[in-house]
Structure formats: C-alpha cells, structure tokens
C-alpha cells in the first residue's frame, strides 16, 4: 500500500513539472497554432539562468524565480519578434523553425557554459521530508506541486479576468475583427509567446535540484510536454492540467508495474491511440466557428 | 513530354554524371573519401523518401528515422550472424540469451534480409498510415503521432538488449557476401553500388511524381476534401505513399549499415529524424532530386566544416535551417525556380509584357 502511495506521489510530482512546461506550450499553441519545439530549450535556459544566479550571485532558487521568468520571457519575446512572427501562416514550418532555434540555443549554451552537468542546490528551507505513515514526501517536491497549482491559477486569472486575457481570447476567436476593434494582434502574440517562454523558464528553475542541468535536458521534456498539450485539448488550461496529472500518474504506475522504459512505451502507445480517436484532445476548448 | 518532366530528366542526367564520373575523379579515387561519400548517398535516399511523402503528399513524417533504423538493423542482423558463424552473436551471451531468438533465424539468408529490409518498414509504416489516415488525421497531428511512434520505437529497441544489442547496437559485422563478390566498403565498386541504388531510387521517385498517382497525391496535399469528393479514396493513396516512403527509408538504412559497418539506436533518435527533415527542406521538399542533393550538400558541408569547428557546426546548421525555413521555404530547388521565373519575367518586361507579376509572390505560402 505504501509503495503505491509513494508511487502516486512521485507521479504527482512529475505531473506538476510537466504541467508547468506544458502550460506555456499550451498557451502558445492554443493562441497561435505554433508548435514550439524550442520550448524545451527555454526550460534549459531557465535552469542555466538559475545555476548562474546561484553560482555567481549566490541567489537561491526561490528568489531567482522572478529574475529567471523575466530573462527567459525576454528571450522568447525576441525570438517571436524576429522569427516566429513571420511564420504564422505556415503552421507546419513553425515546427521546423523552432527546432532550428532549439539547436541554436543548445549550441550557444554548450559553447559558452560547457557541456558538463551543472549542479544547483535546493533551498535549505525546503530540505527534509514530510511523513504521513508510510508515505514520505520531499518538502521540495511538495513546494513544486503547490507552486505549479499557483501558476495554473495565475494563468487562469490572466486569461479570463484581465484585459490582456480578453484581448488574447478575442484574437484567438477572430483575428481580423479584433484588429478592427483596435487590438494589435502582433503585440498580443508577442507578449503571449514571452509569457509562455517565461513559464518554461520557471519550470527550468524549479527542476534544477531534481534533474541534472545539461544542454540537452530540454529535448526529452518537450516531447512529453507536447503530448500533455495534445492530450489535454487545444487551448484548454484545465485540460492541460488534467492531462499532466493523467500522464504523470500513468507513467509512475506503469513504471511500478513494468519498468521505467516499458512504462514510458506504454504511455506513448496510449497517447498515440488517444490522438487517433480524439485528435482534439480530452477536453477541447469550446469555440464558435 | 512536359517541360517539368524534361527539367527533371535533365537534372537527373546531370546529377548522374556528377555522381558517377565527377565525384570519384574529384576524390582522386581515394578509398576513404569514396566511403564517406557513399554514406552521403545512402542518406540522400532517406531524404528523397521523405520528400515523396512530405513534399509530394503533404504528410510530414517525423518518424522517418524509425523505418530507416528497421532496414539498418535488418542488414546488421544478417552480417552479425555471418560474423558469428555457428556461434551465438557475442552480445547475446552478455545478456544471458542462450538460444538464437526466433526473429533472428531467417536472417541467415541474404535474400530474406534484403526483402525484409524493404517490406518490414513498409508493413509497419503501412500499419501506422492505416491507423492514422482512416481517421482522417492530417497536418500537425501526423507529425506528432509519427514523432511519438519514433520515440516509443527507439525505447523498445534499446530496451530489448538481448535481441538488439541495446544501447550499443550491433557491432563487429562481417562484410556482405553477394554472389561472386565480397563487398569491400572501401572500394570504387562499392561506391558505384551506392550510387546505383540512389539513381534507382531517384528514378522511382521521379516516376511516382510524374505518374497519375503522384498527381492525385498533390491534389490531396492541396485539398484532401475536394479530392475525396471527386471519388478518390484519400486514405488509400496516403497509405500507399507512406509504405513506399518507408520501404525506401529501409533500403537507405541497409545501405547505411553496409557503409558504417554497425547499426546503432542513434539512427532512430529524434534528432536524426529531424536532421532528415532539415536535408529535405534545404534541398527542396517538392522534388526528390532536390531532396537528395540537399542531403548530400548538408552532409558534405558537415563533413568538411565539423573537422574545423567541431562545436560550431551544429550552431551553423541551426542558423542555416532557420534561415531556409523563413526565407526559402521551398529550399534550393524553389530558389532556382524563382530565379528562372524572375529571369523570364525580366525578359518579358523588356518585350513590354507585364502580365505575370503575382506568380512568384504566392509560391512561399504553400503548406
């Protein structure tokens, strides 16, 4: 019983990380139809920024979060302005261009920082474990779970309760009409892309104590995160959240029943079947056409 | 004979002269250089296989490396059995496999290996295609499903260490024995074998492009629904081109194993699969010949430049790729076409004919 509970917790912890990565991806995909394969590299940049802040300035992870968010969002904003904005009418080509951007970011980091694995210390405040009977939960992982829920809530508020969110939703529904009402769609898209990139940066910062920080760390994550988005349904925040939990838990449970690799294979197979039968995801956003 | 067919055949003839006569002469018949170039020729086949499905039918297959890997492993299994003689292949012993797995047994036969290297990828590709296209999956979802399949397939291959050699792949292979010819991969005749395979593949690709089958595929690419209303079974056509593309990729994989003398799960990695897409995009996705040239050029550059800047190469590749996608969406082939159009328009203007200024502006927006 304890084994199962611990495994469920591991799945939830993985889901919280997936959620934060997928959230940025979901917003970018939902708003612009851009499949951002460079998203994993934004996560990587966030991780390296955290490492740099801790090593050279002695700032711990929690305090680094806002700085990392702004820095990675800025990188995302520039990339959107220079490259992605020109490709909105060719969705398949955005896959290729963002993959190219990913290669560039990876190589820049490899050339400037080096390919060796970097170590980031978790915050002292959150070391140690919380124990409920046989269930042992690391405090840091609990913090990541809580934080990801907070990010989800903040994003929901941003999308539904602010003027920026309203503009974004207007542009998604009908770009032409929104522009007639004076909404600058290009500006909205740039900011949305920057926000998505910033979220990826935060995710990267938070996973530094859990993963090893290497230039290629993003590549594996982006495939998983993308599957979360597709499974969750386009443009649906709640869908992305439930899909993250579903995939995180499924991976954890299959890994326990079979082994890590077979668990991942089973989840991938499940996702392929799901896309086949529900290409719009489990919880597609309701839009009028 | 239409003009397009004429250009394609002229291009093929020129390409054939360069590959058959030009390259070996340029390399000074150096065995090592020829072997390196034979590797590029094998990669050109997989790039043109992708051009058939991506450029020809609008199906972006990000899992092309999986079918490439199947062909490569088929050949490697045959050569490994040959190298091991009557004994078990060495890595099986390390993994406590005491008997030859059933799946390995038929690979003793060369004929079976060659057929399996083509048909197994075609069959698996066909299964995925039927699975997707019957449900009318299109666009980015094709890319995502094939990508997920590739990731899962590579995991399976690495996981099944006892059968596939896991992370190490299959190494220590014997040379291929064709009837009356023990293939030395560092020789002119092997280079010509690779060149012959590529020529055959390009000819097949051009035949498909110019056939009615190719025309229907282009119709599907432009508007699947409308093609359906004309009474064509869209899913069957898409499945057929997927199978052909997969078989060609398997063929390329077999050749690749011969050149490198090992098979590795890295042939089935996501980055290798996207590299194939890059070659195809640089050359031009609409034309099988252009895709093949793209693969050769990019790999040639990689071979030359990565000697000088080991780390910088990938950076340059990334930058080039982004620029190509942004400004040359139809690759070098498209650039060539635009230039000829520009030239013709210039000539037309001098004669006072200003009727065709919008033609080239639209070309960048395809797909």
TrEMBL record, chain A:
Known InterPro entries for this protein? ABC_transp_permease (IPR001851), ABC_UrtB_bac (IPR017779), BCAA_transport_permease (IPR052157)
- The answer to whether the entry has keyword Transport is yes
Q: How does it sit in the membrane?
A: Multi-pass membrane protein
Q: Name one GO cellular component term.
A: plasma membrane
User: This protein's superkingdom?
Assistant: Bacteria
One GO biological process term: amino acid transport
Q: Name one Pfam family in it.
A: BPD_transp_2
Task: List locations, semicolon-separated.
Answer: Cell membrane
TM helices/strands, residue ranges? 12-35, 55-79, 140-159, 193-214, 221-247, 253-277
Annotated GO molecular function terms are: transmembrane transporter activity
Q: Which CDD domains match?
A: TM_PBP1_LivH_like
Name the UniProt key words of this record, in alphabetical order.
Answer: Amino-acid transport, Cell membrane, Membrane, Transmembrane, Transmembrane helix, Transport
Q: Does the keyword Lyase apply?
A: no
Q: Which residues form a coiled coil?
A: none
NCBIfam families tied to this protein: urea_trans_UrtB (TIGR03409)
Family to which the UniProt record says this protein belongs: Belongs to the binding-protein-dependent transport system permease family. LivHM subfamily.
Know the name of this protein? Urea transport system permease protein
Automatic annotation (TrEMBL), chain B:
GO CC, sorted alphabetically, is:
plasma membrane
Region (Disordered): which ranges?
348-367
> Can the keyword Transit peptide be found in this entry's annotation?
no
Could you tell me where this protein is found in the cell? Cell membrane
* An example Gene Ontology molecular-function term: branched-chain amino acid transmembrane transporter activity
What InterPro entries does the annotation carry?
ABC_transp_permease (IPR001851), ABC_transptr_urea_perm_UrtC (IPR017778), LivM-like (IPR043428)
* Record keywords: Cell membrane, Membrane, Transmembrane, Transmembrane helix
Record's bilayer topology term: Multi-pass membrane protein
- Which residue ranges does UniProt annotate as crossing the membrane? 6-28, 40-60, 110-133, 140-158, 189-208, 229-252, 272-301, 313-332
Q: Does the keyword Signal apply?
A: no
Q: Where is the composition biased (Polar residues)?
A: 355-367
One Pfam family linked to the record: BPD_transp_2
The name under which this protein is listed is Urea transport system permease protein
